[in-house]
Amino acid sequence: MGLSTLIVRASDALPMAASVDDEQTEQALAEHKQQAKLIFRRITANSESRCSIESGAYTLHYLIADNVVYLTIADKSYPRKLAFSYLDELSKEFSQTYGPKVETIRKPYAFVGFDTFMSKTARLYSDSRTAGAAAGSSMDRLNDDLQDVTRIMTKNMEELLWRGDSLDRMSHLSTSLRSESEKYRKAARSINVNAMIRQYAPVAAIAFILIILLWWRFT
After folding, report:
1. Cα(59)–Cα(29) distance, rounded to whole angstroms?
2. What sign does the dihedral 205-209-214-215 (CA atoms) show?
3. Of the four listed, 23, 25, 128, 130, which is most buried by Cβ atoms within 10 Å?
4. CA distances from 123 to 18, 128, 142 (A)
């Protein structure tokens, strides 16, 4: 099932809880955890609320609910229905336990104790794939309750990385264009002022001399 799970605040990607992974899993998923951080930074108010992102032998599934992102890294062969059912259970329990506190925390991993529930739920979903007949009937009941995931967006990590880089470049280009545009506006104003000075300076000088002569004559 989900080999690793991360929970962050959607608005600023502040990590709030994470599964405790063994050293082997930590090493195997080091690159994918970095990709997860990238996904968190890419999430906006317009992002899909449920999405599966394929990356090599793994898939990163995430769910957004109440300004919280729940993401799990699973084997590519692991059923999406189970992955999102798992995330749904996490979101319901997390919201019920910590919901009112989500917007107030300032330090990372403030809800580290949630790992106990994550570990227990992860074992349940892992066992449901390999257990015998008794667990199989439980699996059947679980499948009956699972939502339809055919409409959940599926993306490729390379596509996401390229799109993100493109957006970054476009943002940088837009900033540069605004800066250059401001420079041109200032230069244009300076040119116009200089042109007006050259055009009206002689007239102003003559008018000033006349005023001085008239003042001197009548005083």
Report:
1. 11
2. positive
3. 128
4. 15, 8, 15
Question: Considering only CA atoms, which of 37, 2, 40, 32 is closest in space to residue 20?
Answer: 2
CATH 3.30.70.20 matches 4-170: no
Please give the distance of CA 100 from its chain centroid, rounded to a whole number. 22
Q: Which two tokens stand for residue 54?
A: 């394929």
pLDDT, the chain, mean? 78
The overall pTM is greater than 0.85? no
CB neighbours of 153 closer than 8 A, spacing ≥ 6? 48, 50, 51, 52
Both tokens of residue 43? Answer: 């999430």
Which residues, in sequence order, are bridge partners of residue 65? 68
- pLDDT value for 188: 61
92 residue type, one letter: K
pLDDT digits (tens, 9 = 90+) for 1-57: 457 999 999 999 999 999 988 888 888 899 899 989 988 988 888 888 899 999 889
Specify the length of the chain in residues: 219
Q: Which tokens sit at 129?
A: 């794939």
SS3 61: strand
Contact between residue 36 and residue 73 where contact means Cβ atoms under 8 Å apart: yes
Angstrom distance (rounded) from CA 178 to CA 181:
5
